[in-house]
Amino acid sequence: MRGYGGRALTRPSVVRTGECPGATNRPPVRRLSSAVVKVWIPHRAGHALLGELPPGVTVELMEDPARLPSPPADVRFWVPPFLAKPGATALLAELPDLEVVQLLSAGADAWVSRIPDGVTLCDARGVHDSATAEWAAAAILSQLRGFGPLARAQARREWAYDEVAPTDELAGKRVLIVGAGSIGAALQARLAPFEVTFTLVARTARPAEGVHGVDELPSLLPEADVVVLLVPLTEQTRGLVDEKFLAAMPDGALLVNAARGPVARTSALVAELTSGRLRAALDVTDPEPLPADHPLWELPNVLLTPHVAGSVRGLLPRAYRLVGEQVRRFAAGEPLVNRVVDGY
Fold it and tell me: What amino acid positions are annotated as catalytic residues?
């Protein structure tokens, strides 16, 4: 069956329908008409994870923009796929009644500049805290305790004690967390038992909370053994990690990027890491995916993972609990949480 714009229409996977007003959170809060509030979600498993929804809400499975479940004109609430493919935002132009875009990712950088006027963008802050913090903690321990060289020795069937030992350790390290949000707090909680000291940095200083402003980084970096990047990608954070940033880090320090690849200038990273002066653990790169011939692959002081920090089995249940709560708020005319404002 052909539908809007010549796209194929599949039979909608509908889990709840009815008649009741919905609403948006954009001030002033206004009541929607009594028409059905149509929601598109990208995962079949999401149906069972949303929880009870009010009458008037219809949920349809929309996995592939090339095969829409129904005409898009009356979609009011859209949940794009997690780590949506490039071009996913093009569908926005075909959703004239759209009220809310609810992301499953903590970062909204791919969407901020493309959201039409009058549409509320929400991210999934809180959903990825534990998973991303776990990845960062594991990456730090892996690099400090020499798991990379040990794994390579294992692949060679070599007992590499003399090659690797003694290793570095996490105890006593000074950890600088750039991005003092919920993921930063989760990482701090996980690293605290390792007898480390913390310095937290946010966009602006919060003296009452002991949080420094990003403008203080030049004086903070020389005192950090481990620097963890957890900031969103905005015009202010793009290229934050440049030659001066890296040069300010002490010899042997570890840079951990669980934010976005473009937060760091790749050319500066390659130059500094090739020298062997610093170490890095990178879950994100620029470009991404990293080409097979990229020099970062070959560096023994670099741990690379393919943007997997938040990709854990518990992701969908947590994410769809948030989506369900947002849909209920929307239908009730209540303010939504996690609204993205100025890229944050």
Answer: 260, 288, 307
